[in-house]
Design brief:
Helix content is 64%, strand content 10%. The protein contains 22 helices and ten strands. The protein has helices at residues 6-18, 22-54, 59-108, 111-116, 119-161, 163-174, 177-210, 212-217, 221-247, 249-268, 271-274, 279-301, 303-320, 381-388, 411-416, 432-436, 445-454, 458-462, 481-495, 511-525, 560-566, 568-576; strands at 342-349, 358-365, 370-375, 396-401, 404-405, 418-422, 499-503, 529-534, 545-550, 553-558. A six-stranded mixed beta sheet has the order 6-7-8-3-9-10, sandwiched between helices. It has a four-stranded antiparallel beta sheet with strand order 2-1-4-5, covered by helices on one side. The longest helix has 50 residues, at 59-108. The radius of gyration is 35 Å and the shape is elongated.
């Protein structure tokens, strides 16, 4: 397991994401260098103004110096603008790359990853965590370079004016090191807790909004408000605690700055020790010292952002380094389906170690036949579908299509040869056309319309205000259950795969809607190897073979009439349906 130390995280982040932006970074550094140089010149300019302009009253200087001051601040302003623009460009580019990489990783990862993580947590990692990386790549790096260069420049001015006083001043700031280190460690821990709390809160909000009908139907508004409020309280408690701890650094620096200035004034009165030769030099030294405190406080103020960014980087790399179990092997050949025979050979599988969902089952599904798999809830029916589509791989045994082990074929080709129509139809908030085109993204408008006609969806789509361009709403909320099911069937017609899986495809519909959909499904199954997962057995009467499952095992098989006579489990299921 990778150990994500601060050094490892910073080096990897810079190597993989920051270094490719080297051109803009160099331009930003050039601007920062100019900014630091103009800041460094200011205390020396004060000495010159005090000793030579104000005291000497040279008429030429009285005209030239004010113009020079204006020019100096103009240069500094444009340097500051340039550094901000270039570093922001770096930050946005870096974060967009990280978001693309992480989203791609989520999409290609196992279904198991999405089953074990709330959608809100994954969204939080994509946005909340990576926006912290934006601050690391832009604001933090900007401040470190800009304020760091300014600090070094002003420190050089101090030593130039009086190395004795400068050494004494540095000693005063050394006392800040220990408390700052303690603060840093505490902030890192709080940053990690805060990001986890934010993910929990987003997950809860997402569940509440998506499940608002269930919440209202069961009158659980107040319960959900209390649960969500507690998460909100915890999130802001951590943020407030982090702010209080981070704010300790500022008074520490203020006090030490005051001590340092007081020490300088005291020693400046002792000419033999201070090496200060004029009032202008004293003004210049004190001005540089005051200005020195500004970059120090600015750098220290970044502590919370740095620790939050490192915590975010740790969460990012922990996720991006996770390996999918179904990761395609190099050189896997495409699955070649000529007939469509499907065989499950001695399959065993468990979602949770030690709790077998499937127990050494074997069953055969001949090409072009309609085969039903039935059983009580929890008997393992839907797990068969999960293994066929390689959402999971079996613990032992094989899934064969036309004699080919699907684990040896490319994932894309396996899923490309199987169409799925499930109970929970998911539609995107896109148009009807785009939702049907999920079956084949390269299909023409004519092919999409034909698929809609075959799936029984063309009639109701045509009556909509914008026809095929009408949006379906989030998760298809603007459509009825039967309409959503017809869109799913249209997708399957458009995909035109040799193997079809109907996973409880009509179980959520009323009997009248089910009868209408069933006619469309009969048309869809014609000439295809069809696997029907059903709880309501009225849909499987005409299946060529029916497998009855109980507790993860196949206990009976045969046609409907045979099973009604010889299988108590099947006859009980049919009676209950």
């Amino acid at each position: 397991m990778t150990k994500y130390t601060n050094k490892h995280l910073a080096n990897r982040f810079i190597r993989e994401y920051v270094r490719p932006e080297i051109v803009r970074i160099l331009l930003a550094i050039m601007c920062m260098t100019v900014f630091a140089a103009t800041s460094t010149v200011q205390p020396l300019l004060l000495e010159f103004i005090f000793d030579d302009v104000l005291m000497g009253k040279d008429k030429l200087y009285i005209v030239i110096v004010p113009l020079g001051v204006i020019g100096l601040f103009i240069v500094q302003a444009f340097a500051n603008y340039g550094s901000n623009v270039f570093t922001s460009g770096v930050g946005y580019t870096v974060v967009s790359k990280m978001q693309k990489n992480l989203f791609g990783h989520f999409m290609h990862h196992d279904v198991d990853l999405h089953s074990k993580n709330k959608s809100g947590e994954l969204v939080s990692r994509l946005f909340n965590d990576l926006m912290m990386m934006y601050y690391m790549a832009s604001k933090v790096l900007l401040a470190i370079f800009k304020q760091g260069l300014t600090f070094v420049g002003l420190l050089c001015v101090l030593f130039y004016q009086s190395w004795q006083l400068s050494l004494i001043t540095c000693c005063a700031f050394i006392f800040a090191v220990y408390p700052i280190i303690r603060i840093t460690k505490r902030l890192r821990k709080l940053a990690r807790q805060g990001q986890e709390s934010s993910a929990d809160l987003l997950g809860r909000l997402n569940e509440n909004f998506r499940g608002i009908r269930t919440v209202k139907a069961f009158r659980q508004e107040e319960t959900e408000i209390k649960r969500t409020n507690s998460l909100i309280d915890e999130f802001f408690r951590l943020k407030y605690k982090s702010t209080k701890i981070n704010s300790l650094a500022s008074p520490i620096m203020e006090i030490l700055s005051g001590v340092a200035i007081a020490t300088v004034i005291w020693y400046a009165a002792r000419d033999s020790l201070s090496n200060i030769q004029s009032q202008g030099e004293l003004v210049s030294f004190i001005a540089a010292l005051i200005m020195l405190a500004r970059p120090l406080k600015s750098l220290n103020g970044l502590n919370e952002a740095i620790q939050s960014s490192l915590a975010a980087a740790e969460r990012f790399y922990t996720m991006i380094d996770s390996k999918p179990k179904q990761e395609p092997k190099t050189g896997n050949k495409p699955l070649e389906v000529k007939k469509g025979n499907v065989e499950f050979h001695k399959l065993s599988f468990s979602y949770v170690e030690g709790q077998n969902t499937l127990k050494n089952i074997s069953l055969s599904i001949p090409a072009g036949k309609k085969v039903a798999i039935v059983g009580h809830s929890g008997s393992g029916k839907s797990t068969i579908v999960n293994l066929l589509l390689r959402f999971y791989d079996p613990d032992s045994g094989k899934v064969l299509i036309d004699g080919q082990d699907i684990r040896e074929a490319s994932l894309e080709s396996v899923r490309g040869n199987i169409s799925l129509v499930s109970q929970d139809v998911f539609l995107f908030s896109d148009s009807m056309k785009q939702n049907i085109a999920y079956g084949d993204s390269e299909a023409s408008d004519e092919e999409i319309i034909q698929a809609a006609k075959d799936g029984g969806a063309h009639e109701f789509i045509s009556k909509m205000t914008h026809g095929y361009d009408t949006p379906a709403g989030e998760t298809g909320i603007l459509l009825s259950g039967g309409q959503r099911q017809r869109i799913a069937i249209a997708r399957a017609f458009l995909k035109n795969s040799p193997i079809l899986v109907l996973d409880e495809a009509t179980s959520s519909l009323d009997p009248i809607a089910e009868q209408k959909i069933q006619k469309t499904l009969d048309k869809l199954t014609k000439g295809r190897t069809t696997i029907i997962i059903a709880h309501r057995l009225s849909t499987v009467r005409d299946a060529d073979i029916i497998y009855v499952m109980e507790n993860g095992e196949v206990v009976e098989s045969g046609k409907h009439a045979e099973l009604m006579k010889k299988s108590a489990i099947y006859s009980n299921l049919f009676s209950a349906a």
